[in-house]
Design goal:
The chain is α/β, with parallel strands linked by helices. The chain folds into 4 domains: 90 residues, Orthogonal Bundle (Fumarate Reductase Iron-sulfur Protein, Chain B, domain 2); 49 residues, no CATH class; 135 residues, Glutathione S-transferase Yfyf (Class Pi), Chain A, domain 2 (Up-down Bundle), CATH 1.20.1050; 125 residues, Rossmann fold, CATH 3.40.50. It contains 25 helices and 8 strands. The protein has a 4-stranded parallel sheet. The chain has a 4-stranded parallel sheet with strand order 6-5-7-8, with helices on both faces. α13 crosses α25 and α23 packs across α24. The longest helix has 17 residues. Bound molecules: iron/sulfur cluster (2 copies). One iron/sulfur cluster binds next to α3 and α5.
Length: 452
């Protein structure tokens, strides 16, 4: 449902999703968050810092400022990386406040018309439908296989006349030969004795862009005695919708997933697994998202309590030590929504350190955002590119041969960064998910030929 912006003198927040007054009041203006904030470090202005954005929300709340396009721009420029939450001694739930602010902006139609049209077309039209997403994947495959992508890139015309569009084009994933099909999961037999039954959320982008990450995930869990299935009726998790402020679309998707993963009359899975950090942090918020929906609130809370990031769950159940040698130096990029939102930092490193021959080389700032941030890299491509350039400096300075992370958006962004900034070819051209490296080590240990 959308609402017209309030007239002067009317209350500024119009929906139940408004920022919580008590949570807004938790900010004591100490400024500890400033140096953790990539947009403050890049733009250098208070209104593009966490403290400044919270002050803007409060000023709107009390009517001291009007909700102008300029104010909206400061909200749009936030990466929602939540590094400010980690830095904040007062535990201000910044991510929730920003999502609530964006929900109000969306409901009040604070966006330009063209942006709303595009959102409706892509985010409401394509993302909720696995079939339409797959068609888009085939379109990308055609664009690449017919040589059009190579032509566009070689000509340099796009970069010359529309550099923003060229940055977006550079993010397109290499279309894979075989997209992931949810039916594949059940074909992998778990080792006995069976330790748990899990359900995997495969998401919207991963089956098209990184199907091998899903295949590796299922193999790794099967090896550790966990049977994994991927419910056929599942849909996109809705994280991108919630981050953009389209909470109604996010709620629709959440209800569909809850029905798919916790069907009436069937035993629930011991864990709902997720290997994409951005989706994982959102799935853990399903209870909050549907808290006011009396028909769904209890099931949503149950769903959220079962969600486990794959690294977190492997460490929790105790994983079989891998034996295959991977003699390479790897650096690990903390995905913001794994480290800052879910506070999962040690588990991926524990998995990587368990791989024989692998040397983990830490970056100077591994938990600084790479600039991907969902569709931020498309909507705010200039800032995103500057944040990426800094990240790539850090990656290259680590001396690693491969960069590894835990989220498809970060993998796409880092792959674009490697193509653009790794002139010496020091890094492997493709970033990896930690679970793929673990799978590779298991397979080498079993005598399988090297898979990368
Ligand atoms: S979420 Fe990230 S970009 Fe936004 S204010 Fe916090 S630290 Fe800055
Ligand atoms: S660290 Fe927390 S309390 Fe301090 S200014 Fe930032 S958001 Fe406010």
């Amino acid at each position: 449902m959308t609402h017209a912006p309030p007239a002067q003198g009317e209350p500024i927040w119009l929906t139940e999703d408004r920022p919580d007054e008590h949570e807004l009041g938790l900010c004591v203006h100490c400024g500890f968050c400033l140096n953790a904030c990539p947009t403050y470090l890049d733009l250098g202005v208070e209104t593009d810092s966490p403290r400044g954005r919270i002050a803007l929300m409060r000023a709107l709340d009390t009517g001291r400022v009007e909700w102008t396009p300029r104010v909206q721009q400061h909200f749009d420029q936030c990466l929602q990386c939540r590094a400010c939450e980690t830095a904040c001694p007062s535990k201000v739930p910044y991510g929730r406040l920003m999502e609530a602010t964006r929900a109000e902006a969306f409901a009040q139609q604070r966006w330009p018309r063209r942006r709303r049209l595009l959102w409706n077309l892509i985010m409401r039209g394509v993302f909720p439908s696995p079939r339409r997403l797959r068609l888009a994947g085939y379109g990308l495959k055609l664009y690449q296989r017919l040589g059009l992508q190579a032509l566009v890139r070689r000509s340099g015309l796009l970069r010359r006349f529309a550099p923003g569009l060229a940055d977006v084009e550079a993010l397109s994933p290499d279309a894979t030969d075989r997209f992931y099909a949810n039916a594949e999961a059940e074909r992998v037999q778990p080792a006995q004795p069976l330790r748990a039954n899990a359900a995997l959320l495969t998401g919207c982008m991963m089956p098209l862009a990184y199907p091998e990450t899903h295949r590796a995930t299922v193999r790794v869990f099967a090896r550790n005695g966990v049977a994994v299935r991927a419910p056929r009726e599942q849909v996109c998790c809705g994280a991108l919708h919630a981050h953009g402020g389209d909470v109604e679309a996010a709620r629709d998707l959440a209800r569909k997933n809850i029905a798919a993963f916790l069907p009436d009359g069937e035993a629930p899975p011991d864990a709902i697994l997720i290997n994409a950090a951005g989706c994982g942090s959102h799935l853990k918020e399903y209870g909050h998202l549907l808290r006011n929906d009396s028909d769904w609130a209890a099931r949503a809370a149950d769903f959220a309590s079962r969600v486990r990031d794959v690294h977190e769950y492997l460490v929790e159940i105790g994983f079989e030590p891998p034996t295959g040698e991977l003699p390479r130096a790897v650096t690990y990029q903390d995905s913001c929504h794994l480290s800052h939102a879910q506070e999962v930092r040690k588990a991926p490193r524990e998995l990587l350190r368990a791989i024989p021959g692998l040397e983990l080389r830490e970056m100077r700032a591994p938990d600084r955002c790479c600039g991907s941030a969902g569709i931020y890299s498309i909507m705010q491509s200039e800032i995103s590119q500057r944040v990426l350039a800094e990240k790539m400096e850090d990656v290259l300075a680590s001396g690693a041969q491969q960069v590894c992370t835990a989220n498809p958006g970060c993998m796409l962004q880092l792959d674009a960064g490697i193509a653009r900034y790794d002139a010496e070819g020091a890094l492997s051209a493709r970033s990896a998910h930690a679970i793929e490296l673990l799978d590779e080590s298991y397979r080498i240990g079993d005598g399988a030929r090297r898979i990368r």
